[in-house]
Amino acid sequence: MPPPIAPKGEPKPKSKISASRRLSLKILLLTRASEQLEAEKEAREENKVQYLGENLPPLQLSGLQLEEIQKICKQLHEKIDKVDEDRYDCEAKVIKNNRDIHELNLKVRDLGGKFKKPALRKVRVSADEMLKALFGSKNKGSMDLRANLKSVKKEDIKQEKELNNEVGDWRKNVEAMSDMKGRKKMFDA
């Protein structure tokens, strides 16, 4: 359980460890850490020497002919190529894993955030204001949408009703047009 945080006006509670004791503990921790770092470096060097001793025996080139030396060089080049391929694969895996870690960290930050989406409100915008917002000051002419609407007169409505009545019900015309003469009438008309 963390200690309670004191308000700004009050002084911090005093530590139970004296300053000299705290300093001596810091020094001890730093010396112990440096000793461990040195031990890790030595262990790595030993592992490296052991690995090279197992996988790469010492070369004995004395008394060998030119063809045998060339053969050994080819084998070494093949080993080098294989090691380079393995190194490249490992680097690609590390890069992919780092990218995945970064993406997951971003997701965690997004999920952990306390961001609230603001409530949207209705905004009344005229056509001119909308065009101005979309195109900026490029569009100087105003656009009156009502002027472009088709005007409908009562006469047009009456004509459409008459046309619909003339055509009539499609079922009546089916029997009249069922034979070839009916089709001829349809094409003649």
From TrEMBL:
Cite a single GO BP annotation: skeletal muscle contraction
The answer to whether keyword Secreted applies is: no
InterPro entries the UniProt entry points to:
Troponin, Troponin_I, Troponin_sf
Could you tell me the keywords of this UniProt record? Answer: Acetylation, Actin-binding, Coiled coil, Muscle protein
| A GO CC term assigned to this protein in UniProt | troponin complex
- Coiled coil spans: 27-86
Q: Which domain of life is it from?
A: Eukaryota
- GO terms, molecular function: actin binding
Pfam assignment, any one: Troponin
Q: State what this protein does.
A: Troponin I is the inhibitory subunit of troponin, the thin filament regulatory complex which confers calcium-sensitivity to striated muscle actomyosin ATPase activity.
The family classification in the record reads:
Belongs to the troponin I family.
Name the chain's protein.
Troponin I, skeletal, slow c
Annotated source species: Pogonophryne albipinna
